[in-house]
Structure of PaaX family transcriptional regulator C-terminal domain-containing protein:
Amino acid sequence: MQARSALFDVYGDHLRSRGSQAPVAAVVRLLEPVGIAAPAVRTAISRMVSQGWLEPVQLAGGRGYRTTERANRRLDETGNRVYRRRLPAWDGHWHLAFVDPPSARPARARLRADLTFVGYAELLDNVWVSPFPRAELAEILERAGATARTARADRFDPEPTGAWDLDRLRSAYDGWLDAADELVEKHLSAHDDEDEAAFAARFHLVHEWRKFLFADPGLPDDLLPADWPGREAADLFAAEANRLKPGTDRFVARCLGA
């Protein structure tokens, strides 16, 4: 687990509802049970400040950091997808973005990764498709130095679900269903403190589940087969996350000195 990714999980899953800020010492305490050492936390914080995700703030518990407005938008959108809150209803139309990409290769790679993360797939060269308009599109394009023309389409035959590798995604969900219980029990048994164990188990559970955001665009249910394993996987994730939440909340409050 990379420290930067773990910090996004901490701020999104635990601090967003607690003012979106915390002293550095508290963040270090939160990440210790999941194996992220203090030097790695501080290095990751510094990088996230330079990238515009965090900003310094003086708190009662000492120097700390809070998420920027840009980070809050990303964390809220990610949280909605992770926990499947406020899922939009599909109106049968597709959203297309005809992208004029930046010339620099690193910027193109970052643009591709960001578009994929928020639910787009490349249908043709520089033509990206999504079942829904994505609120972050304009910001992603601006950050990459790219532009795009968008359109609404409803005449696909067959539907463009082949833009995503659904066979691979099906296998990934099957693997999740086979491994989730073992993942949780492994981390529950690795800590003597019950609340710390619940936090570590839930943290790893959410971290692994969040990886599906890079592959699953959240296709409308009526475009997926009746035996789609993503439904059962989502139910299992929600049940385990809820089961571990009380102990997790107590541990977070303890680390924050609340």
Remarks:
- Strands lie at 21-23, 54-59, 62-67, 94-100, 121-124, 127-130, 147-153.
- The radius of gyration is 20 Å.
